[in-house]
Design brief:
By secondary structure, the chain is an all-beta fold. It has one helix and 30 strands. Helix content is 1%, strand content 41%. The strands form nine sheets. Strands 6-5-8-9 form a four-stranded antiparallel β-sheet, with no helix packed on it. A four-stranded antiparallel β-sheet has the order 13-12-15-16, with no helix packed on it. A four-stranded mixed β-sheet has the order 21-18-17-23, with no helix packed on it.
Length: 447
């Protein structure tokens, strides 16, 4: 017999033993305790339940014991004549009645249930219950039932095998591993070392994963779960791929960057690489989610994973939501992406340039400067404005001459020989905004 016993102290309580508080005239609470039921010793544990005046002539019915990871739960049907119930427990090392150790009282209370959270892990116990009343009567005991606080996980399933791969999904099968598992949980990952994600469970030894993205290879494992929720280690790993066919729809695009800078709209998105896509359709509306079934919400068709446009100048343009649908090479459309309202910001001037070469000539000066690239969320650079003055510290306000060009060089002719000229260049974008002036340079043309 095991020597492990961590039994709770017996808690004696009944409906008749509840303390009644009586409020006196002075407003002070006084405790008045009614007569309590006789203790087990006063009643005599051996009282005969079949005595003629005993109203508790039957044991409580519906006695159940449920094993769990953290505790063992007991329940039974209440008896109308009972005011309390005694719960007894013994260690049960074998299956025969004589292999059950001596019973000890766990507790007494009025409820028709009891939770034994003090049971030792993975030790088999036998339980029985009897009823009491205020007159000292006792009922017969219930038939003993067994329970265990089970913390031992099942053995891992074995021989996980991929049975088939088709357009409906990936079908797996495995062996039990000779364990006490009552169900199996299937996990998958997108690479051998990625985090496993639960995709479903089953009580059988086969499972079909219909939720994977077509064309995406997944890595699968299976774990067994016993009746109290202990989960086993993982089975071996196998991979599988849901087949792509002509009828396969692409995965919905993931609309990421969405910006409205002044009048410049920029959208970009990513897509699953496993189903070939021939085009994308952009939709918009002032409600979310965007209704892609309404032809009036269709904005454009593009073949790249980005869309740019110049929209109206009124503030209402900032209230639109956008969504994107991918279409496969076989004209099968994806679900719509999430509907996104672009973030708005005021337009920014382009970056400044710098003049790197100044060459005076006869009555002329040749200027060359660096080209300025446009950012993805910026209006495109459309040209450069050259400012000239016969006085140093040229500004946009005091310049005596300006010229706009789309090139990165300019020949300023018709100048007076021997006169010193001062130059600076500003970058110009599609929104008509100019950058700050480049650092000033000067040159004196020959006569």
């Amino acid at each position: 017999m095991s020597q492990r016993r961590h039994l709770r102290p017996a808690a004696v309580a009944s409906a008749a033993a509840v303390v009644v508080l009586a409020l006196g005239l002075t407003g002070t609470a006084h405790a008045a305790a009614p007569a309590t039921a006789p203790s087990s010793a006063e009643r005599g544990v051996g009282n005969d339940p079949d005595q003629p005046d005993n109203p508790l002539y039957d044991a409580p019915e519906g006695f159940r014991v449920e094993s769990g990871r953290e505790s063992i739960s007991l329940s039974w049907s209440p008896l109308s004549a009972a005011t309390a119930y005694e719960v007894y427990r013994a260690e049960a090392e074998g299956t025969d009645p004589d292999e059950v150790g001596p019973y000890e009282l766990l507790g007494t209370g009025p409820a028709s249930s009891y939770v034994d959270s003090g049971a030792d892990p993975d030790v088999a116990y036998a339980y029985k219950v009897r009823a009491l009343d205020d007159a000292g009567h006792v009922s017969p005991y219930t038939e003993p039932l067994r329970g265990t606080r089970d913390t031992v996980a099942p053995f891992a399933p074995r021989d996980l095998t991929r049975v088939s791969e088709d357009a409906r999904g990936v079908t797996l099968t495995w062996r039990t591993g000779d364990s006490d598992a009552v169900k199996y949980v299937v996990y998958r990952a997108e690479s051998p070392n990625a985090r496993r994600v639960k995709v479903g469970s089953t009580t059988s030894l086969t499972f079909r994963d219909t939720k994977g993205d077509p064309g995406q290879m997944y890595f699968y494992e299976v774990r067994g779960v016993d009746a109290v929720g202990n989960e086993s280690g993982s089975s071996n790993s196998v991979n599988g791929t849901k087949t792509v066919t002509d009828a396969t729809a692409p995965k919905a695009p993931a609309l990421g960057n969405a910006q409205l800078v002044g009048k410049r709209l920029t959208l970009s998105w990513s897509r699953s690489p496993y189903v070939p896509v021939s085009s994308y359709t952009v939709y918009r509306s002032k409600t979310s989610p965007v209704d892609i079934t309404d032809p009036a919400n269709r904005v454009a068709d593009v073949t790249r994973t980005e869309y740019t446009a110049t929209v109206g100048e009124d503030e209402g343009e900032r209230d639109y939501y956008y969504a994107v649908v991918a279409t496969s090479q076989h004209s099968v459309s994806s679900p719509a992406s999430a509907s996104v309202r672009p973030t708005y910001s005021e337009p920014r001037p382009p970056g400044a340039t710098q003049i790197y070469d100044v060459t005076p000539g006869a009555g002329s000066v040749r200027l060359s400067w660096f080209g300025v690239p446009s950012g993805s969320d910026e209006a495109p650079v459309t040209g450069y404005r050259v400012y000239r003055s016969t006085h140093p510290e040229v500004t946009k306000e005091n310049a005596e001459f300006t010229h706009v060009t789309s090139d990165t060089e300019y020949v300023d002719s018709g100048l007076t020989g021997g006169t010193k000229y001062y130059y600076a260049v500003a970058t110009v974008n599609e929104d008509g905004l100019e950058s700050a002036l480049s650092p000033e340079v000067s040159a004196t043309p020959a006569a």
